[in-house]
Amino acid sequence: MQTAMMMNAGSTALSRPLTRQSPASRVIAAPQISQDCVPRQTLRRTQCSPLQLALQRRRQQRLGIEASAAASGAAGDAEDAAKQAASPVTDAAEEQKTSGGFKGYLASLFTPLKDRECNNKLLALCGAGMLSSVATMIHDSYLPIYLQDVLGMSNTKIGNLQAIAMFLSGASKSVSGTLGDILSPARMVIIGTLLTTLNKPMFAMSGWVYAWGGTVATLYWITAAKVADRMSKGIREAPTKALMGELAAKSDDRPEQAFGVRQASQTFGALVGATIAATTFKLSGSNFIMTFALSALPAATALAVVFWAFKDSAAAAASVKKEARAAKKAADKAAGTTEKQGLGELASKVGKFARELKPAYWQALAVNACTYFARFDWGFVMLRAKQVMPKSQLPGLMMFTFLVQTLTAPALSKYAKGSLRKRNQMLLFGVVPMVAANAAFALVPNTAGMIAGSLLVGLHMAATHGVMQGMMSSAIPAGEVPGLGRISGTVWSVTDLILGFVLAYSNSFAGKLSDITVGRGMGNVGCFYGGACAALTTGVLIILFWKFGSLGQDPQKEATNKLA
Description:
By secondary structure, the protein is mainly alpha-helical.
């Protein structure tokens, strides 16, 4: 019987087809000690010693462990390969983590969003903003001199022109955000950039207008050009901020670094624009018109960038809006209602809109407003500096401020993005250079004091401006809100309007404080004492809202806890 069983097993093995097996499969298929292949008498305890039985059991266990290990290793390799194949490397943040050293860190400064597509769109927004800043600084650097030396405008009239332009810019901000919620932020950014591009040639055409219509016609022309330039900037400002918040939310990132990159790029654009203007003006023999004409080139490039980056988003948003209106119209027709809203329904929507603005928004707005109160116009610094340093060196002070912002804003905002604690720490840190800058302007009446103050202002702006905008963005609802639709643009419009009033009153109050100190024979230093007090108040508010308010709580986690 035993011989027959062995022959039967051998014939069965010969009848199987020969196949190539992997090492893992050969280990997995390792034969166990079969009772059929062992003489029956060896299975009897009466004929096997305990030592032999123990050796057999150990051999069986060893073979089983090896087979299990090989199987698990093969399964692990297969799982890793499947994950690598199923998830291609599209994450910009993960790619920059793999590259170490200074280049990797530098790349991470300009990769504020993990999602590649969102990060590319964000960089396109920042690039367009930088090019727009270049274009604006090219003509604004010498526009006041052109108005005074060529057209004969007085300082008062130039100031009134600036005031009208700034007022209309603020007014356009208050409308553009709401239009962005209706039409989509991407479309409003494209429209605003288009208007800016169409506006820039108006400054260069002022030479032809002067030759054709004289001084009066040129004054009206330049006034219209300046007002249109500021309004086009206001039209794209609130939708840009809303769009950046939506990109950060889509990428599941904190927005502080995104706004920091935007701040650095715009400041760098101002530096480049002022340099181009100065170089062109000198090489052209003080030709204003030729200098103004160059502003059209970066503006047109900015339009090409935003159109390339957001044309698909704008088209998709338009299609979605059209379908939503058609669905609502069909639903209203089926229900027998009309699209007209009564006062009651309008009041209900306004109340719901207000309820969507959580305490974190109002607390962040309070911190921003107090900070804006400390940031009065740079003209007060120039008035102080001209008393203690040569006038030829005055333009360099703003260059110091811009340079510090450009070099430090990306790194500081990257740190602030890490967590709520780091964000609040960065804001508190930013209060210190602001207080020190005011002290330098007021108490160190020489060239070194003015330079030190300018550098400290740049550090303050780098540490707080973009981070505060990111803090505001975190508290503003991104995407669609049930019953209201998209509201982020409208919220940004309201925010900019409030901060605009705060900044206007800040300049008025700074002027009154300076007049008081001048009357007492102390010089133009009253505004700096007021600025230091406002900065210290900002620090107190940050600490209070961080420890006892909502600025120390993650809005997403807070919402999750409420739902639970």
